Amino acid sequence: MPKIVDISVQDDLEMDDMSQPQNPQAAQFMEQKRRLKRRLDDYFEQRELRRALGLDD
Question: Which residues contact 19 (CB under 8 A, 6 or more apart)?
C-alpha cells in the first residue's frame, strides 16, 4: 500500500514565496501581471457574453 505524504505545507510555503516577492521590482512585475490577467479575464468574459447574446461583430 502506498504511503500518503502531506506536502501541502511545503506547497503553501512555495506559494507564499511566489506571491510575496522580496524586491520592489519583482513586486511591481507581479502586480502588472495580475492587472493584465484581470483585464484579459474581463475581456474574455465580455466576449463570451456578447457571443451568447448574438452580438458578435
Answer: 30
For residue 52, what are the CA distances in angstroms to 15, 39, 45?
A: 36, 20, 11
d(CA 18, CA 16): 5
What pLDDT, on a 0 to 100 scale, did the predictor assign at position 1? 55
The single residue listed with the C-alpha cell 502506498 is 2
Name the residue with cell 503553501: 12
Q: Which of 4, 51, 36 is nearest to 28 (CA)?
A: 36
